[in-house]
Amino acid sequence: MKITYEELEQKVSKLVQTNQHLKESLDKYQTIYKQSPIAIEIYDEKGFLIDVNQACLDIFGVIDKKELFFFNLFKDPNLDDKYKNKLKNGEPVRYQVAFDFDKVKKLNLYSTFRSGIIWLDVLITFFGGKSINGYLVQVQDITERKNIEEALKESEEYYKNLVENQTDCICRWKADTTLTFVNDGYCNFFGKTRDELLGTQWLRLIPDSSRENVKNFYQKIVAEKKSYRYEHEVIAANKQISWQSWINIPIILDGKVIEYQSIGRDTTERKKFETERENIIQELQSAIEQIKTLRGIVPICSSCKKIRDDKGYWEQVEAYVSKHTDAQFTHSICPKCIKKLYPEISDKIR
Questions:
Q1: What secondary structure letter does DSSP report for 5?
Q2: Cα–Cα distance between 350 and 335 in angstroms, integer?
Q3: Listed residue (127, 110, 225, 244) closest to 175, CA to CA
């Protein structure tokens, strides 16, 4: 079958267009390859380096990429053997590794102006279908990110230890008083494990006699979205009734209180001291009042010796004194009165 001139011209035109598209596509990928911030390495099927981009040279501290062309992927001391085996079996691998430039220099793998250790995120895939025709390695320097992660980890560990080692009770709870976090101090004070406490309402740790008042107070502060200090009774370990003073701080997101963080301190001994102090003060005040009464002018009958009180009533001396003091009376008779009242027997009584 003969091809006409017009048909041949159309085929040539399509070939030219296809070639142009391929060239444009190649130029595009070459631009991406050269300008990519990700280091790209291309290896043949035996693991020998074919080409690298500028980002790769920058990361590995190489001036001339010709120095790398003898480098073999499977001789890389920073590539673990388990990943090498996977690659040989046609499996892609991704890993993070601490890349040691001192190893590179010691083994004289290639010239580099860098030293020390950096962290890399590495993805290695392969070209080809059933058979491996080569390897594509993409590398990113994640040293800065790793340093930040490590700093955050250390900071988190520091504050975690700070919270856990506190003897004060620290907890977080939702608006319905359901506990979402408790520290060791909280567990120890209430004599319960975290598993026993988390997901339960701390209101059940309040005695029945004061639970309703505590509930009403906390409902109020949740509604007001404010920080508050509050002191109340709790059921501590061994079912003992104790007192705690709590500082409650709202955690607000999008204008809503999502949780409260609270710090509580045992104030039982202070409460006992305050109660004892109040009792002593009341006793002293009562004693002072008694002293004032007895130190004033006391109207007394010159005959029967009864005392007139503030209301005008006359009382026996012993009744008056007993009412205004803690003194108690016992009755006896003095020798002079015995002679007066019982002269016939007074000489017999000594």
A1: H
A2: 8
A3: 225
